[in-house]
Amino acid sequence: MQEDGLDSPPRLPTVPSLDDSLVDGIREGDRKATARFVELHADAVYRFVYHRLDRLEAVDDLVQEVFLSAWKALPLFRGESEIRTWLLGIARHKIGDYYRERLREPLISDDLDSESGPDSLAGFPDIDARLDGERLEARTRQALSTLPDRYRAVLIWRYWDQRSLAEMAAISGNTEKSIERLLDRARRIFKKRWDDG
Amino acid sequence: MDSRGNRDEEAFFERLAQAARPGLRAPSRLKSRIYSRLMRQAAESGPLRSLTATQSAGHELCVFEKFVQVLPVGARLDSVNYCRFCHGRVLGERVEGAPIPWSGCPYAEFQRH
């Protein structure tokens, strides 16, 4: 049973697929086709990874790994799915590997706060605000990362991509009413996760 | 939920969206680095598609590639990854929004989008 009780969940947005000549171009070492491949999909892969990792400094490396793995596996790509869906699948595996690796890391308590007293921040009045902003961002990313894909997608479209209900309905092939309902559920679940966090 | 509750909820999400960077895109430096790595892998695995074939496929060559194309060089040199030696690559990988003026340059394209 689906978590939100919808009979038919909204479809994920469609994206332009790479045409065969572009895929062939990448396989044959075409410089421009490869650049186009990066240009077309880097933003989506970056957003996908960004909202799922707990450490911002790891995002760039992981996105790069996704593209390198995709390039190596491209001869095996049979075009049965959208190339972006395929890329995000690779990203999902890489994120799984990342968290598995994190679980193996020893816990180190460096307790920086105890080494630097309150006076150490004197003269840097903005640092508290910046840290608050970073904490807020980290907490937001954490809460988003726990949501089912469609809830996360609908929140990101609405509030981060600034899309209207009409646009979201057009992208997903659903009615505005169903998008509104989905958004409402997504907001409630997000708030609950946010409060629990 | 009443309309005040809706307004509060909207305000809450608007604030979060501002904190977590609206319209998030991959940095151009990252795109440049990814492209460089892919091209390095491609060059290591075999000759790149020739500049002539690249152009025939409908892609625009950069000014340096056009220069190489008119030189009397063999097919082997036509398949070299010239970006490796270009300072457009260095700029693209290191400077966000780098001013790279050449058309047909992938690194310049990454800065524009």
Walk me through this protein's architecture.
- Chain A is an all-alpha fold.
- In chain A, 65% of the residues lie in helices and 0% in strands.
- In chain A, helix 1 crosses helix 2, helix 6 packs across helix 9 and helix 7 crosses helix 9.
- The N terminus of chain A is likely disordered.
- Chain B is an all-alpha fold.
- In chain B, helix 2 packs across helix 6.
- The longest helix of chain B has 18 residues.
- Chain B is elongated and about 75 Å long.
- The mean pLDDT of chain B is 82.
- The chains are: A mainly alpha (197), B mainly alpha (113).
Task: Please give a handful of descriptors for the protein shown.
heterodimer, A: 197 residues, mainly alpha, 9 helices, 65% helix, 0% strand, B: 113 residues, 7 helices
Structural class of chain A: mainly alpha
The DSSP helix count of chain A reads 9
Q: Tell me the number of strands of chain B.
A: 0
Individual helix count of chain B: 7
Lay out the secondary structure.
The complex is a heterodimer of chains A (197) and B (113).
Chain A: H1 20-27, H2 31-50, H3 59-73, H4 83-104, H5 112-115, H6 127-145, H7 149-160, H8 165-172, H9 176-196
Chain B: H1 3-19, H2 28-45, H3 51-56, H4 63-70, H5 75-78, H6 87-94, H7 106-112
Helix pairs in contact in B: 2-6, 2-7, 6-7
